[in-house]
Every structure is written in C-alpha cells, then in structure tokens.
Write a structure and sequence with these properties.
The structure is a homodimer of 136-residue chains. Chain A contains four helices and five strands, in the order E-H-E-E-E-H-H-E-H. With 136 residues, the first copy, chain A, is an alpha+beta fold.
Chain lengths: 136, 136
C-alpha cells in the first residue's frame, strides 16, 4: 500500500460556533483533526487539509478516497470522540479492494455520518451504460 | 475530450414518493434523467446509472467526475425542469481544466443543489500536507 494510493481529505474551514459568544479560532474543529490523523497515520495514509468540501453544515467533514475505490464523504465527526474510529475505518478502507466497508464493520460515527459516496472512475470507462449493482 | 474522461453518475434508486398513494414505478426520477442525458450527450460525456450515491433524500442526485478535476455532487434535480441546465453545466465541466465552474456560470439548479465536492486525487499525491487554496 503506497502512501498516495489512499487519502483522507479533511475540511479545515467549517466552524462549529458556540452560542452566546463571537467566533473564535478554536471553533474550527478541522485543523486539530488533521493533526491527530497525520500523527496516527504517518507513513500509512495521506491526510490532506482542504479549504472546502462544500458540505459546510456538518463539521468535521472528511473524504476517504483511493485508486479504484468508491469515495466516501462522512460528516458530523469529532476529533476527540471519533479519532479511533476514523483511524480504524481508514485502515479498513485502505485494505479493501473497492472502498466499501461491510455495514457491520463500519463504526457508529460512519454509519450515522455518511453524506454521499461516488463510484470509482473505472465504473464509467468499463461500463458506460449499465446499472451498477454494488452494495452501498 | 475523450468520452471516458468526464462522466456523469446518476442515482437511479431514489424515490420521490407522492403522498396519498402507494409507491409506483414512476416515482423513480433517475432512469428518465439518465435516458434524457444519454440522448443529449451521446459521444460527448458518459452518463452512467448507479444504484446508490448514499444521498437518498435529494433526488435526482448526480455526480460530475473527471480526470484531474474536482468531483461535484448535485441534488434536487428534476429531469424535465433542469435538463438543459445539466447539459450545459456538464459541457462547461468537461471544458474546464479543474472541474470548478465560476459561480456566475453555474446554473441556478447547481447553485442550490450542491451536496459536496471532492478534490482531485492529484491533490494528495502532489501536496500531501499543505492546505488547498482553490475557490469553492
């Protein structure tokens, strides 16, 4: 598994505002999640901060992407509460052939937080007009 | 522009139920959108039906994807009302270098319907630890 084959993109722009006071730097939950994941997954999986995934209302939001795999967008993640689940799910994703984690192996945060998924690019090249039959 | 370089993935499973009666085949808005887009974009852009994009609550949902481009997920599309806007936006997407359509060139249905976007894979390989600065 090369480091660049699988990547986690983490939105670092979404704020999680606290009612009753003005916005502060520490309302940004993305950067600490990037730092924590980079520390845990160094040499295994690239963890890349991005300025906007256009989800905006479900921080933290991240993407699991990899060659020949389905891409998954997951939101509502917390850098403290969900760190271990994200690390384990990312490793399972990297170990999978197609990026699809069996439902029973998905952590609770991933079951609840799925925003969307995108088929691998090869789906278009290999079969441009036939329905897909892969499980979600 | 090769046909396989850019693809539109359309969810064909989401139902748009009508209150007051049982589900019917014609509550599925995805398949007619696939057929209409395939007719309009034959030889230009692959239009691929997929069974689930895991969005589920915003039919029709589609994905614009292409080599070296940002991937966009758009929902709340109607195969009659929005067909021309989808065709034009898909052509602009195919003609773009990075998949980002300037805001003023995005049709209304795309401005309202954005669900998420995903960076190109090269983002991870080229710059695994630096923030992205591309406009959304």
């Amino acid at each position: 598994m090369s480091e660049s084959e699988v990547a986690i993109f983490v939105c670092v722009s979404c704020r999680r505002p606290v009612e009753g006071r003005d916005a502060r730097e520490d309302d940004l939950p993305g950067p600490p999640l990037v730092a924590a994941l980079q520390a845990r997954l160094a040499g295994e999986i690239s963890v890349v901060p991005v300025e906007c995934l256009a989800v905006c209302k479900r921080p933290c939001t991240l993407v699991l992407a990899g060659s020949s795999r389905w891409t998954y967008l997951i939101g509502d993640l917390d850098s403290d509460r969900d760190l271990e689940e994200i690390v384990e799910a990312a490793r399972s994703y990297a170990a999978s052939g197609n990026g699809i984690l069996p439902w029973r192996e998905r952590p609770a945060s991933f079951r609840k937080g799925v925003i969307a998924r995108v088929p691998p690019r090869a789906t278009a090249a290999a079969n441009p007009a036939a329905p897909e039959g892969l499980p979600s």
